[in-house]
């Protein structure tokens, strides 16, 4: 919606579907804890100067790595570029 690709109605529909998917067990929700946030922060601070990563994306990548994922699937070019730094392989959706 922020980028103009979806209307408010579309965004509400997608949010409803996402909630249904959670209820149906299609997503594995992982609790975020202080140690995970500190690790994400440390990785962001110590990253190379050309690392472009948003905080929420760093939390996402750190969480994926910590639960043993090896690959992260996204259409976000910045997350794809940063995945290797977080110990993951980035795959484009």
Q: What's this entry about, in short?
A:
By secondary structure, the chain is mainly α.
Structural class of the helices, strands and pairings? mainly alpha
Largest sheet: spatial strand order: 1-2
Taken in chain order, the helices and strands follow as HHHEHE
Number of domains: 2
Q: Tell me the distance between the termini.
A: 19 Å
Question: Shape, please?
Answer: globular
Largest sheet: 2 strands, parallel
* Overall pLDDT level: 93
Taking all Cα atoms into account, the compactness measure Rg is 15 Å
**Unreliable stretches:** none
As a percent range, the share of helical residues equals: 40-55%
What's the total count of β strands? 2
How many DSSP H or I helices?
Answer: 4
Percent of residues in beta strands:
5-15%
């Amino acid at each position: 919606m922020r980028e103009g690709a979806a209307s408010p109605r579309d965004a509400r529909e997608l949010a409803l579907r996402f909630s249904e998917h959670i209820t149906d067990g299609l997503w594995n929700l992982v609790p975020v804890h202080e140690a995970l946030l500190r690790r994400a922060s440390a990785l962001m601070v110590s990253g190379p100067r050309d690392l472009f990563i948003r905080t929420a994306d760093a939390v996402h990548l750190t969480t994926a790595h910590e639960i043993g994922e090896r690959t992260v699937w996204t259409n976000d070019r910045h997350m794809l570029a940063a995945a290797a730094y977080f110990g993951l392989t980035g795959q484009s959706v």
